[in-house]
Amino acid sequence: QAQLVESGGGVVQAGDSLSLSCAASGRAFGTASMAWFRQTPGKERTFVAGITWIDSSTYYSASVKGRFTISRDNANNTLTLQMNSLKPEDTAVYYCAARRGPIRTTKTDFDYWGQGTQVTVSS
User: Fold this and answer.
1) Alpha-carbon distance 111 to 88, whole Å?
2) Cβ neighbours of 104 (radius 10 Å)
3) For 15, which DSSP code?
4) How far apart are CA 21 and CA 82, in angstroms?
5) pLDDT at position 10, please?
6) CA-angle at 72, arms to 47 and 93, nearest 5°
7) Given this model, what pLDDT does residue 86 score?
8) Which residue ranges in the chain fall short of pLDDT 50?
9) What is the pLDDT of residue 27?
10) Displacement of CA 96 from its chain's centroid (Å)
11) What's the rounded Cα separation, in Å, for the pair 43 and 105?
């Protein structure tokens, strides 16, 4: 099993940058595809960015492509989301997720979740 713990959320202004981290425990991290999702009240949890385990290929939603960067450090079991040029619409709770096998973009395909970290972007 894997346990995921996010950190790095906070309150920033539009245009600022923020970096989220996800610390993973469990031997499965190195062979797990990882992703970040986000959710706002009353809305579905949606895919933000993902990274494969086999070659660290990355995938992004259209709304964040070019502004966010996902990366992983298998030696330290850490997943990172660097968020630049933040916009008020990026305000959400951000969740780290992991699954065995290829990357997916649907929340139901992920086996493990963190507790979430709040990101608030003021205009």
Assistant:
1) 29
2) 16
3) T
4) 9
5) 97
6) 35
7) 98
8) none
9) 65
10) 5
11) 16
Nearest to 90 by CA among 37, 42, 21, 50: 37
The count of residues in the chain is: 123
Strands 112-113 and 92-100: antiparallel
CA dist 97 and 92 (Å) reads: 15
Q: How far is CA 48 from the centre of its chain?
A: 7
Q: Give the N- to C-terminal CA distance of the chain in Å, as an integer.
A: 40
Give every CB contact of residue 116 below 8 A, 6+ residues apart in sequence: 6, 39, 93, 94, 95
Token output for 81: 């989301």
3-state secondary structure 39-86: ECCCCCCEEEEEECCCCCCEEECCCCCCCEEEEEECCCCEEEEEECCC
β-bridge partners, 78: 23, 73
85: left (phi over 0), alpha (psi -120 to 50) or beta: left
One-letter amino acid at 3 equals: Q
